[in-house]
Amino acid sequence: MGQKPNILIFYVDQQRGDSVAPYNRAITPHAATLAKEGITFSQAYCPSPHCSPSRTTFWTGLYPSQHGVWNNVNVGNALSRGPYDGVKVWSEFFDKQDYFMISHGKWHISSYDGPFDRGFDEGSEGGKNLYDRSNLNVKPSTHEWDSYRGKEPHRKKPKTDTGLIRRSGYPDVHLFGEGNAPECLYGNTVAEGKKFLESDRAKEKAWCMHIGVGNTHDIYTPPKPFLDLYKDTEIELPKSFFEDTMHNKPTMYRRIREQVFGKLTPEQHKECIKHYLACCSYVDHQFGELMKSLESSGLEDNTIVIYLSDHGDYMGEHGLWTKGLPCFQGAYHVPTIIKWPQGQKQPGRVINEFVSAADMAPTILELAGYEADTDFAGDSLVPFLKGEKVDGWRTEMYTQSNGNEQYGIQRSVMNRKWKLVYNGFDLDELYDLENDPEEITNVVSLPENEQVVYEMYKKLWRFAYEHDDVCINSYMPCALATHGPGILFDDEQ
Question: Is 180 exposed, middle or buried (0-12, 13-18, 19+ CB in 10 A)?
């Protein structure tokens, strides 16, 4: 048996799905090359609109209700600090005799452990672990008070003061500006990856390397050469920026826009879009540098390359930025491109089926030739890569959120026509995606949609039942869904 394939995973933080092929809103020539040589999944979605829950889904192949990570694990008021006991990540199934395991950059799925505890041999921890797992009742960290007491908050700083958002009692934020451009938020991540690829060790045996970069994350501070790529680009604000009044939508959505991003002028929003796109171009440059080292190593023909992101960014849609509780597509739609030189058929294809971040764990394990003693929520994408006919693939996508650091139970189900959002904290939402793809008009209360709402709720609760989701409390002040979970069993009564 020959050497197993190498696997290179380039995992970006907060990159929108439409920034790369086949949409190409940003200038990303290296991702475009990968799409031409590999397979692009144009309808890939994360399960939750921020880092830790979605990253944990990527690593475990499970939804938040199954892996237990509901919001960012290192914030003071996190609901959970890491995956449930017994939940494994896909790297733990790799055989060390077959693979050398390397992880550099962002990890962010646990405050208790890091990549070295989960099967990796070399790399960075991807962030400081704040909690000792031996004491699960540890008092939450109060480190977030530092930014209010004059200490520097942990965030990128632009060299130019632009996009000022000032709120009483909160640190000032300059949402965008020219950056000092460290390689990424998490140290010399790409440089370390290149260093390994150019070493003799990369040829000793198969390897799996995870590179987690963060330069598409707010604050948007691209280096000047990448901002200059867009200096003559005419930026148009999205239709939803002007037409979505947030009428008949959750109050929290309006508060986020009015109290935070509404402080920017339309021209500042346009500039911010340029800066975000330039960040995507800078990340693409980093990816290209990594690909150059892979090519010069002579290992390209036996290396699977996976390019993806943990979640997206609203990028001015509905007047919003970053990500969070508003359940709009921009925060959930992510890039996913896979190149498998030895096994894929018809490179350059675009797959338009619904793909979940939960599909990545079974896909990676199958590509490496391993089986896991885990019932994944996702399914392997290898049949698509092989060009096989795939029958019975999913027709809906589901999301699960209990809020980011501002709590709020939210679940959604989407098919090609409809999207229903159950907001346990406020008004529900229903969008006709065929006629309103920008999710401007909430039609949940129209009488002609009553049956649609019922059927979509039934799908939502079926998914919850099958994936151990317990957002089903029947106590009167908590039971606010239009149709509760019991509709699943109406026929049994």
Answer: exposed
Percent of the chain that is helix, strand, coil (3-state, to 5): 35, 20, 50
Q: Return the pLDDT at 183.
A: 43
* Residue 306: strand pairing partners: 9, 338
The one-letter code for the residue type at 241 is F
User: Which strands, in side-by-side order, build the sheet including 429-432?
Assistant: 397-403, 407-414, 418-423, 429-432
Using the 8-state DSSP alphabet, how is residue 186 labeled? T
CB 161 within 8 Å of CB 177: yes
User: DSSP characters for 398-424?
Assistant: EEEEEESSSEEEEEEEE-SSEEEEEET
CA distances 235 to 128, 136, 147, 223, 302, Å, are 39, 49, 34, 19, 41
SS3 10: strand
According to the model, what pLDDT value does residue 62 have?
A: 98
The type of residue at 249 is K
Rounded to the nearest 10°, the torsion over CA 426, 402, 360, 183 is: 100
**Structure tokens, 213:** 């970069």
Q: Tell me, what amino acid is at 327?
A: C
DSSP sequence for 135-154: -TTPPPP-GGGGGGTTPPPS
> Which pLDDT score is estimated for 1?
47
Ordered domains of the chain (ranges, CATH):
6-385 (3.40.720.10), 397-492 (3.30.1120.10)
At which residue do the structure tokens 């065929």 appear?
434
Q: What is the pLDDT of residue 179?
A: 78
The low-confidence residues of the chain, meaning pLDDT below 50, are 1, 154, 182-186
Question: Residue 372: which of 34, 89, 55 has the closest Cα?
Answer: 89
Question: Do the beta carbons of residue 331 and residue 425 sit within 8 Å?
Answer: no
Query: CA 289, CA 310: separation in Å to the nearest integer?
Result: 21
Number of residues that this document lists for the chain: 493
**Helix or strand (DSSP H, E) at 350:** strand 350-356
- Judged by DSSP in three states, 333 sits in strand
CA distances from 54 to 13, 49, 57 (A): 11, 7, 5
Strand pairing of 303-309 and 333-334? unpaired
DSSP string, 190-220: HHHHHHHHTSGGGGTSEEEEEEEE-TTSSSB
Cβ atoms of residues 43 and 354 within 8 Å: yes
* Phi, psi of 410, deg, nearest 5: -145, 135
Q: Tell me, what's the pLDDT at 15?
A: 98
Q: What are phi and psi of 74, to 5 degrees?
A: -100, 5
Contacts of 287 (CB under 8 A, 6+ apart): 10, 30, 31, 34, 307
Q: H helices of 228-312, where?
A: 239-243, 251-259, 266-297
